[in-house]
Amino acid sequence: MPASKDQTGAWRAQFYYKDWTGTSRKKCKRGFRTKKEAQDWESSFKLQKSACLDMTFKDFWEVYEADVKPKLKYNTWCTKEYVVTKKILPYFKEKKMNDISARDVIQWQNELLQMGFKNCKKYSGTYLKTVQAELSCIFNHAVNFYELTCNPARKAGPLGCGQADEMLFRTKEEYLQFIPTIVYKGGARYYYG
What we know:
The chain has seven helices and five strands, in the order βββαααααααββ. About 50% of the residues lie in helices and about 15% in strands. It has helices at about 35-50, 55-70, 75-90, 100-120, 125-145, 150-155, 170-180; strands at about 5, 10-20, 25-30, 180-185, 190. The mean pLDDT is about 85. Strands 1-2-3 form a three-stranded antiparallel beta sheet, with helices on one face. Strands 4-5 form a two-stranded antiparallel sheet. The protein folds into two domains: about 1-50; about 50-193, Tyrosine recombinase, N-terminal domain (DNA polymerase, domain 1, Orthogonal Bundle), CATH 1.10.150.130.
């Protein structure tokens, strides 16, 4: 069924699709401002249900969320979601999954490195590696379960490093020398040294 207007003047998308069991189901969503919005939503929904990778990265992210979120702890998912929505989706959201190449990933890596410099603080190597790992997880899921031919994030190579910078620890003697140089005034600490 094509998109149509309802009695309120808003557009709706109403159509049939087959679910994962092969059962025919009816889907209806209302409230679109234009006919194009209703048709775009319908085509996006059908692509997600067919598991065809001709969908955008943003649409596949929703598929990935439905597949993976129930298996992860809440905090783990929140971390993953933050990294993807802030660092990955802004760059890849409109690109089609099967059109993303290793070259696109390399350009994204370079842009991510530049973002760190624009903020006057460089992203740590371990953070960059975490962001790259999240992108690679999404593509691995597409390779393993949705017949994507290869993982472009793996082809592009690593980003960041796996080892954190070395932490500096003070000995007891160093601590005892340093503590007398701190003066507390009105709840604030001042260092005189």
